[in-house]
Design a protein that fits this description.
By secondary structure, the protein is an alpha/beta fold. It has a single domain, classed as Rossmann fold (3-Layer(aba) Sandwich), CATH 3.40.50.2020. The chain is built from six helices and eight strands, in the order H-H-E-H-E-H-E-E-H-E-E-E-H-E.
């Protein structure tokens, strides 16, 4: 039968308990999707893929992997590539020292004059190269940088290192490997493999130099 009075009464005059619950249910924010983190939606300049805790965990893992590969801290020398590779090298050295109970020498290696695009961008600021007193000869040198991209910065670092002496071995530790290599260079220790497109930029900020720790993806174009 079409529409009895009792049905109309129940539908329009006396809401069911289920409908009443729907009306009174408090409005809450939607739950974040799996894998999302709060900073990804709050950073004003891009999408945060690593926050301070993520970076700390990544550097701790790198420190342990370096020790495992080297079978201890003997003959280790960490050389950070300015600018952000230097504070990262110091943090890794601190984590290694916490495990081994002794200090690990740390220095910095400027690659400006060894870059293959120097003639294209001649106006560059020279940054300090600081090598510990024992030098690099017969050391296991770990180059430390924030982002590995085309590989050209690391090639320049190898050339710069070659002018300083003859290490026992040279290894590479990076916080982020974003792919798109142009040279046959591979990192030995990676904090985060981060697939990106060439129209994206990976920007690392550190509390030591920028006031905060984060890895942010910005869609501002390719950057080597």
């Amino acid at each position: 039968m079409l529409g009895s009075p009792s049905i109309h009464s129940a539908s329009f005059n006396e809401p069911s308990r289920e409908a009443e619950k729907e009306v009174r249910r408090p409005v809450t924010a939607p739950e974040p999707a799996a894998g999302d983190t709060a900073p990804q939606s709050t950073h004003p300049e891009g999408r945060v893929v690593l926050d301070a805790r993520d970076i700390s965990r990544a550097l701790t893992r790198i420190a342990h992997e370096i020790l495992e590969r080297n079978k201890g801290a003997q003959d280790l020398l960490l050389l950070g590539i300015p600018s952000r590779g230097v504070p990262l090298a110091h943090r890794i050295a601190e984590k290694i020292a916490a495990v081994e109970g002794g200090s690990v020498p740390v220095g910095s290696l400027d690659v400006t004059m060894y870059r293959d695009d120097l003639r294209l961008k001649p106006a560059r600021t020279l940054l300090p190269t600081e090598i510990p007193a024992d030098g690099v000869d017969d050391k296991v040198v770990v180059l430390v940088d924030d982002v590995l991209f085309s590989g050209r910065t690391i090639r320049a670092a190898l050339d710069a290192l070659n002018d300083l002496g003859r290490p026992q071995a040279v290894r590479l530790a990076v916080l982020v490997d974003r792919g798109h290599r142009e040279l046959p260079i591979r990192a030995d220790f990676v904090g985060k493999n981060l697939p990106t497109s060439l129209v994206e930029r990976v920007r690392v900020t550190l509390a030591d130099t920028d006031g905060t720790d984060a890895v942010v993806i910005e869609e501002t174009g390719a950057d080597r």
